[in-house]
Every structure is written in C-alpha cells, then in structure tokens.
Amino acid sequence: MTPADIRFAADGMLQSLATWLRALGYDCTAGRELFGRRLLERAVAEQRVFLTRNTHLANDWPRSLVGQAQILFVAGETFPEQLREVVGRFLLDRERFLFTRCLVCNDPLRAAGKPEALPSLPPRVAAREEKFWHCERCGRFFWHGSHVRNSAARLRQWLAA
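Above: the chain sequence. Below: its structure as tokens.
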C-alpha cells in the first residue's frame, strides 16, 4: 500500500510507532496535544485508521463514534512487534517512501536547493551534502547523512525479525 492509499492516527501509547510510520513515508497523526476521543473523532472525520492498544474503547466512548471508526487494536508488546504488525497488516511499502515526510510535523517534505538550505546547515553538512529536503510547516531542513542510513538499517532489521 502506498501513502496515498492509507493514513493513520496513533494514540498516546503508540508515539514511537507513529514516528517510524512517518519515517516509512506514511501520514500518521499523533502527538501529546491530540489524544483520546478527540483523536478518534479526527480519525473518523479524516478517514484514518485509528491505531490503539486500548481494548476498552467501546466502554469508554460512544458506540456511534467507535462504530464509524476503522480501528486496529495493536497487539504487539514491543515497538518492533507493533511496527511489523502494522506494516504486515496493511502491506505497507518498506522502502520506496523512506524519509519523505517530516518526522516531527508529519507533513510531506519537498526537495530544496542547497542555496536555500545553506543558512540553516551546520558547516560540516554544508561542505559534504548536496541534496536537501524542507518541511514547510516547521521550517526544518533534512539531508540523507549517516543518521538516515543508520535509521533505514534499523528499520530493515526490525521488519525482518
């Protein structure tokens, strides 16, 4: 499945999962300011899959709201198990969209020229890197340095286990 085919909303117990789904390039709404019933309402309104470990939703919130939602109760106890569960359940692409979304804001990144990025770059990065990406919402610039290679390797390891 591609990022155009599916979007997620992850509750407060699954913040690490949300970050790494973003690293895979998938839209995943999450955060400390958006949780509980408000997050579920947003998931329904935006046709997102609601990811949760809360098995008591039907007891806590109106049945009409829970009944409208597409909910995945994530069973995995550890983060790598949770990631494998969601990736496997929805057949998410593991490679093609890596690091195309801001890990903080969740917005898609756009390619940026070096002159545009230069004022925001550490000198070592400016001397070494040529390709950059920019998040319009938070203003951060990104590049594919060793942190990206290491994170991609870690993702592959978690997903292969």
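The mean pLDDT is 93.
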